[in-house]
Amino acid sequence: MKKIGCVGWMILLFASCSDYLNVVPDNTLTLEDIFTVKEDAYNALAKLYNGIPRDDNTHLTTWTLGDEWVGRLDLNNNTGDLRAIRIMRGLQSATDPQLGLWSGTQGGKHMYRAIRQTDVFLANIDKVADMTEQEKAEWKAQAKCLKAYFAFLLVQKYGPIVIPTEMVTPDATSDQLFLPRSKVEDCFNFIIDLLDEATPDLVEKVALSELGQIDQIVAKAIKAKVLFYRASPFYNGNREYFGDFLDHDGQPFFPLTYDKEKWKQAIDAINDALNICSVNGIRLYTYEKEPFIYDREDFDANPEKMQTLYDLRMVICDPWNSELVWGYSGIDYYNQGELAHSTNMRLPSGFSGVTNTAEYSWQWMGATYQMVERYYTKNGLPITEDRTFDVSSMYEIIETPGMMDPEYADIRGIMQPREQTIRLYMDREPRFYANLGITGGYWRTHSFRIPTMMFGGAYGGYNSSQHSTDFFCTGIGIQKFVHPESTSGAWQRTIKYPYPIIRLADLYLMKAEALNEYNDAPTQEVYNAINLVRERAGIPRVESVWADATLVNSVNKHRTKEGMRDIILQERSIELAFEGSHFWDMLRHKKAASEFSAPIWGWTHTGTTAQTFFVLEVKQARKFTITDCLWPISLNEMNTNGELIQNPGW
């Protein structure tokens, strides 16, 4: 950690601007000027939110950690591209860590700098003359919550951190500058205490003009998430990984004895967050507008399934909807680079509009084959558990039912009639069709419903005459983040929305997991929490389907803690697919190293027929070890601060 003087602080504090508040401060302002009047102080508050990482950005996001995503293979050797995927390929480095939050290396936001900025704000906000004491207290509370959140992001990646209790001043001594890392439990306690201190001074719910700012709803959700992580096996009693990871006094950084009561504290915080969400109208999203014109006929003919499809298709990209607890408000309206852009397919030739244009429709960030298998069947079961789903024939090439066939009624508007596809794509749950772009399905984008085939030269498929590098290398797209009305060519043609930091479905699934871990066996309360998400997804209740011996192989798996844990984690991996959750879920349960070292598979994207396309091949090697579970502190930082102890293996 380095000493930063007041002039440096001013540069850091106002180096960039969060577009959502449309603030462009005068660079000539002094510290005294900024905290003289309310308007300038508000600009300073806005800048604090700029410390939130850009998980919406394709090359800077952590959402592509894990095994869900794969991008352009020709970018494999570019250190500045697809940084999270580089980590999954075993290319993390202590010299210049990818997405490093400790020092802001290789695309990572500098969290200690962001924390220092909150300290500057807290030290000066009382100087503002034209603010009430209540206003000052509320803004201070926002700054404290941001400080707590930034500290949590550090603990999440690094484990023990240097607890930022005091602001470093220009006259600080070396003992004040160069501090050791604290025990993980002390770090969590620091974060929780800061949130508890701040929450009473926040407004319960921010006004529409201030969406994205922290209120009591957000603060309680952050606390719930922090305690959820603290109770998880990676951070709670992890003797297996960190039994010999010791501080200067020879004491373990991580708590080595598992404490079940931490789950009870998490449950209480989750319930508190859910209660305040309920009181303030935050609820699971359902689509309540008119369907798009191209879907209206199918909507009338197949209303229940089409409604579910819309509920799931629009839950992320319908701006500021009812499910969003906290969204990233630093929306970059004028530039491309979001996951929504890198995942969007281009409008093919033959449609009216801006066709075959790369701007805002990169058409190369896609899903791995692992995700195709991960989604449930129509019965809400894993494909290997559903007795009605024949795994032995799932690679069989078939033709979908025709419009006049009775079987077409259930897939109308979801799969194309009389088109070639693979049996693996049939009889799947609604989220499979809402989230993925598949052969024989539909992709709603560019204000059209595009019948995607993904074969070489077909809609959505590889087309070397258009672009030799921009294609879905697995032949599987992701349409979850693409608003159906977004088009190519210019920012004015795209629909922008806040990417979710926390949404309600996550809280319900956190509750199910916390209850399951705390109790000796699953209770009805566990089932109720997960069923809220499953029912919106159009699949059966967990206790009914898992008890049905005619449907499931592992009958009553849901009645054991271990079995229900597997069910909850798979539910999270599907409901929160591609949103950066699965990687951390596997890490929390110490499964990341075993789950994420398998190679990435996909279809043969150059195949022009079903027979040549539906052939699995390895697309990218992956290597993720226990060492990778904690980010390395950069060697430059280690050399600067002799009090730091490096993370194991680095």
Protein described:
- Strand 7 and strand 8 (448-451) form a beta hairpin.
- The protein starts with 5 loop residues before the first helix and ends in a 10-residue tail after the last helix.
- It folds into three domains: 38-62 and 99-284, Serine Threonine Protein Phosphatase 5, Tetratricopeptide repeat; 63-94 and 288-321 and 332-497 and 601-624 and 631-649, no CATH class; 502-600, Serine Threonine Protein Phosphatase 5, Tetratricopeptide repeat, CATH 1.25.40.900.
- It is globular, with a radius of gyration of 25 Å.
- Strands 1-3 form a two-stranded antiparallel sheet.
- The chain is mostly helical.
- 35% of the residues lie in helices and 6% in strands.
Topology:
Blueprint lengths: L5 H8 L17 H4 L3 H11 L20 E2 L12 H6 L22 H14 L8 H26 L15 H4 L6 H15 L17 H16 L7 H4 L18 H19 L16 H6 L1 H11 L10 E5 L10 H5 L22 E2 L1 H6 L22 E3 L20 E3 L7 H6 E2 L4 E4 L2 E4 L25 E2 L20 E5 H15 L5 H13 L5 H4 L15 H15 L5 H8 L3 H4 L4 E4 L6 H4 L2 E5 L14 H6 L10
Antiparallel strand pairs: 1-3, 2-10, 4-5, 6-9, 7-8, 11-12
Subcellular location: Cell outer membrane
Organism: termite gut metagenome
Keywords: Cell outer membrane, Membrane, Signal
Low-confidence stretches: 1-26
Task: Provide the number of structural domains.
Answer: 3
- List how many beta strands DSSP finds: 12
**Average pLDDT level:** 94
Rg, Å, rounded: 25 Å
Instruction: Give the biggest sheet.
Output: 2 strands, antiparallel
Shape: globular
Helix content: 25-40%
Q: What is the overall number of helices? A: 24
Summing up helix and strand content along with how strands pair, one would put the structural category as: mainly alpha
Q: Tell me the strand percentage band.
A: 5-15%
Strand ordering within the main sheet? 1-3
Q: End-to-end distance, in Å?
A: 19 Å
Pfam families: SusD_RagB
Subcellular location: Cell outer membrane
Organism: termite gut metagenome
Keywords: Cell outer membrane, Membrane, Signal
